[in-house]
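Quick note —
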Amino acid sequence: MRILVIEDEPRIRAFLTRGLSAEGFSVEGSDDGETGLELALRESYNLVILDLLLPGLDGLTVLQELQRSRPELPVLVLSARSDLPTKLRGFELGARDYLAKPFSLEELLARVRVHLRHNGNGNVDGDEGVLRAGNISLDLAGRRVSRDGVSVMLSDREFRLLQRLLEHPGEVVSRERLLADVWGYHFDPRSNVVEVCMRRLRKKLGPGTPIETVRNAGYRLSAA
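Predicted structure written out below.
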């Protein structure tokens, strides 16, 4: 699955590349509208993530050209311009989705998967709305969590933190990746919010919670 990121801010472009690559996507980037448009028209991509405030050709012009030449290619606009007229203009010009900055990588990834599935590029599991590992179950649509059949009330951040671990049972998920996915790229990497939230999550899930701390590596949810 190939994704083109057209974003002129190096920090955000690098963040998107790392996050999408970690999910198994092949990612290429461009830092200006003209080069990005050339790549999108010349190469075969499954999705374009497009900023609007670009040097050279602005994002709306790029979007208009893509709609004219490659209308089948889904474009997700990712922009600091969050006013309603700009959003409506983006949709008028062919954007499939619009996400305002600052953003959560987790939400971006969810939207990316939805658009790739809608374009026949993904695998749809009939039970994909429920994540399970051992005696823990997480219902994405209903925003419900249970352990041994007993409901557990979690905050939004605790829910999302558990979701990331459940998506990779038995694997070590780094603290940095959890911070980026749950709190977003703009959050101070020196913060201890991951550790604090993890302690609350373990306490709410109860004794013997199968979440391990892997020293100098991250956290792992036992699949057993």
